[in-house]
Specification:
With 334 residues, the chain is of the alpha/beta class. It has three domains: 71 residues, Arc Repressor Mutant, subunit A, CATH 1.10.10; 65 residues, no CATH class; 178 residues, Rossmann fold, CATH 3.40.50. The protein is 45% helix and 18% strand. The strands form two sheets. Strands 4, 5, 6, 7, 8, 9, 10 and 11 form an eight-stranded mixed beta sheet that branches. The chain has a three-stranded antiparallel beta sheet with strand order 1-3-2. α6 crosses α11. The protein is globular. The relative contact order is 0.09. The structure holds S-adenosylmethionine. S-adenosylmethionine binds next to α11 and β5. The site of S-adenosylmethionine (SAM) has 18 residues, from α11 and β5. Belongs to the class I-like SAM-binding methyltransferase superfamily. Cation-independent O-methyltransferase family. COMT subfamily. It holds the Pfam family Methyltransf_2. InterPro entries: COMT-like (IPR016461), COMT_C (IPR001077), COMT_dimerisation (IPR012967), SAM-dependent_MTases_sf (IPR029063), WH-like_DNA-bd_sf (IPR036388), WH_DNA-bd_sf (IPR036390). Keywords: Methyltransferase, S-adenosyl-L-methionine, Transferase.
Amino acid sequence: MALKCAVELGIPTAIHNLGGTASVEDLVTSLSLPQTKLPFLRRVMRLLVTSGVFASDSSGDKETYRLNPLSWLLVEGVDHEDHTNQKCFVLGTVSRHYVEAALSLADWFKKDLVPPIPSPFEELHGVPLLDEKTPLLDSELHNIVVEGVAAHDNLAIGTIMRECHDLFRGLESLTDCCGGDGTTARAIVKAHPHIKCTVLDLPEVIKTAPDDGTVNYVAGDMFKSVPPSQAVLLKLVLHHWSDDDCVKILEQCRKAIPSREEGGKVIIIEIVLGPSLGPVMFEAQLLMDMLMMVNTRGRQRDENDWREIFMKAGFSDYKIVKKVGARGVIEVYP
Ligand SMILES: C[S@@+](CC[C@H](N)C(=O)[O-])C[C@H]1O[C@@H](n2cnc3c(N)ncnc32)[C@H](O)[C@@H]1O
């Protein structure tokens, strides 16, 4: 809630505009807050420094606050390859609808619901999240969630392109399945101009995608068919879906690619749950799993969960080629 407060007040952007460092007095003045709130803001900032959202420096009895890599992602208006503003992701996560769904978890556990089991969000609010019906619940929430998920999913594309250059080497064509407005596909084509890239998404998404001619857009349903390519990319898609649905999606992807000998593969970018990256990263992965449990029918998966799904969908082998932060890059072979 302190983070929500800081984001809503625009504290990260204010610190950035003040030259990257600010005292609580500077913040109160630049945000036009009443002077009487100064000691209260100091307490909020103290908590956010301790939780790693901001950095601080003390000299004598004067304390100043600085952005760190985390709060830099909350600054608005930054034009940088590795920056996508996470404000909407924070505001969605702490929205009344998410929080009420999370608070209803024990009641949800006690109900003997008929499969496919609706998420606590869907059970409480009557509509699924990220669905065409979600705006009927609250159109402002829906817009924040759509923008927040896009910001979250687009984060670190630059890092992935740098760290996983070989992933796309030698590929002639690629379908980005559920590629949204084509941001990822355009980044891939920019780094590998010879790849013919197709973006598959629902008609209502493709309708508004920016068509600059660099990628080809196809409106469709991945449960019915996926446009054929040498490789299919599924980036942060499967964690929204149940195991049964993941198998169905992957079966369509398998039909869309040639044999392994001809370079056919599915590239999956998702969390691979596990403690190997240390307790902080593991906790972040598990919190993302709770986010999925409360709000979607999907989940985060460990390597065994992934293997089981790949084999059920008829694939013969897979390789975890890289870990990029909390996410893993997996190649799956027909
Ligand atoms: C979480 S986003 C995917 C993120 C994207 N891959 C990225 O990395 O930025 C989910 C996307 O799946 C699309 N989608 C949902 N159901 C679909 C379906 N049946 N067929 C095709 N696209 C679908 C949504 O419209 C949305 O753009």
